[in-house]
Each structure stands twice: as structure tokens, then as C-alpha cells.
């Protein structure tokens, strides 16, 4: 038997998996709702100088892999040519089997969506390209950039942001713009949160201090973030957005390298400090208020996958299929064919067809309303 590498059998490791893919999945449309490419590059149909630039110009997951193999920074983010950088990456590529290297970006509420709008108006662009609403810079009140970001968001929304209430008003205006464009997804990164009850007065006081650049206590930060997620979830429910929560990211672990190169350059890691109970308390509060939107939980720590899966099931209310559900992080892969081969799932063609078509296309289409 010939090599499967780059053939029609790539990643198909057994006869059942091959048959299921070619029979039911191969002809379905491709829906990629969690790998947001650069809108400007798509619209302008950017032509990269070579494969090295295309693969390595922005992908910090590849940068991380190269550093792991001891490659000097000059071949990663430094001044070496992309040809030289590519040769270094090609050298480690055979050792990366089983390690996905993906780039995923989303749009900030203050983004103009200029190129998304242009693509929407361009009839020559046949692929439907959407984006996700990611308000992280308004969520992390402890960041030094928070005061300046309030000015940026204020300008984008066309209104003054003087308190927490007006912040939420500005975010709603921007969310409405994303909704007009056709977006139905939010992307929320939760590096750490511990639920804290709060009052409106407490949150306003915390916002005032954060906007002034004052140092906040851990309790105050948690209060603000708890309130922020509740209020944003209300807006997501109002505008029929799916709330995606990325749980347990250890941001900027290597401070020295972050100072030298910048944020989002390959130094974020997995953390376990966010308790299942804290996320459960957020979902519970939203359920009590009748404002729980469709929600996908993405725990980055593999050890938390099962606890969060059980938590999600506890908030499904029968109104929609999988209202709260677990989203597999990008390093997990479905292996249905192998389950059938090992006798761990029954070989009934009707159900297998339904599962494959659901996983590959129909579930996403129905859940996001596309």
C-alpha cells in the first residue's frame, strides 16, 4: 500500500473511518468557526513572497515550537530571511507529528470591520467570511492598557465612557454593528476568574479606579470580571450571539520574552486556577436572570475537560440542542472510525451518517443559525 501522506487518505487511519469520510463528509461545505484569518489579507488577496512568509510571519504557535527545539530567535521573529526561517522550521517539522499548529484571531469591539465590510460587498468573494466579537481588553480591568483602551473604544462607539454603565452601552453599540454584519459569535478569554458577588455601586467604584490606572485588589478584579461577564452575556442573549468562554489561559508566562518581543508571540500557557464552580456560578446567575445565551466552554486544561462537560450538561434546558456545551480545544480530534473498529460504537450506517454529517456541518449551521 502506498503512502497516505497528502493523499485522499490523509489522517484516515482505518477502513471504517475512510468509508465514513468519503461517503458522508467529503462533499459537505467547510465551516471553520474558530480560525479567524486576517480580513485585510483575504480581501486584498495578499500574495506572500514565499512559503516561509506565509507560514511564519504571524504564527506564534510555530514560533513556540521552534523555540522548543532550541532555534535562535533571529530565525523566528528576527531579521533572518523567510527562506532561512523556513529551512529551520522544515528541519523540526518531522518531529511535530500530533502537534497541531494553528493561528486563531478575532476582532476587537473597536475594530472598524473595514475589510469584512468590503468582502461582504464584493460579489467575487464566494466564501462567507465572518468574525467573532472579542471584548478582552474591556474585561481585563487590571491591565495597564485599560485606561487608554477606554478612550479607543469611546471613539469607536461615538460616545463618552465615564462609568461602567456607559462602557456597557458602548460595547452594545459595537456588538450591534457586528450583528448587522452577520456575526453571531463572541469570543471571551478567561485567564482566571473566581466568582465574587457584587453590587452596582461596587462595580462602578472599581471601574473608576481601573480607568484612572489605580492598582486593584484581587477581590475587586474578580468582582468587576463577574459583573462584566454577566452584563455581556445579557447582551449576547439579546442579540442572539453564542458566548464562547476560553477558560484557563496562563497569559505571558515568560515576562522577559514578552517585554522583548511583545504579547501573543508564543508565551501563553495552560493554567488550572479557574475553578469549575466559578464558571458554574456565572451560568447559574444567568439562568436565574433568564439571560443565559447559547454557550460553549473551552477549558484549555485537558484535566478539566470532563468536569466542564458535566457542568455544561447541567445547564441544558431543552430549549435548544446543546444550549451549553463543551468545545474541544484544537488539539483534540474525533476518531469515530477507530471507535467502531474497536467495537466501542455500534456499526449502524444510519446513525453513523447522521453523526458524521452533524459533526462536519449540520450541527454548526443549526447552532449558530447560519
Automatic annotation (TrEMBL):
Spell out the Gene3D superfamilies in the cross-references.
Metal-dependent hydrolases (3.20.20.140), uronate isomerase, domain 2, chain A (1.10.2020.10)
* Key words of the record: Isomerase
Keyword field contains Isomerase: yes
InterPro entries linked: Metal_Hydrolase, Uronate_isomerase
Q: Its pathway?
A: Carbohydrate metabolism; pentose and glucuronate interconversion
Some GO term, biological process aspect, for this entry: which one? D-galacturonate catabolic process
The kind of enzyme this is, by top-level EC class, is isomerase
Entry GO MF terms: glucuronate isomerase activity
Q: Which SUPFAM superfamilies match?
A: Metallo-dependent hydrolases (SSF51556)
This protein's record includes keyword Nucleotide-binding? no
Record-linked Pfam families: UxaC
Reaction equations catalysed: D-glucuronate = D-fructuronate
User: Its domain of life?
Assistant: Bacteria
Look up the EC number in the record and give it.
Answer: 5.3.1.12
Q: Which family does it belong to?
A: Belongs to the metallo-dependent hydrolases superfamily. Uronate isomerase family.
Identify this protein by name. Uronate isomerase
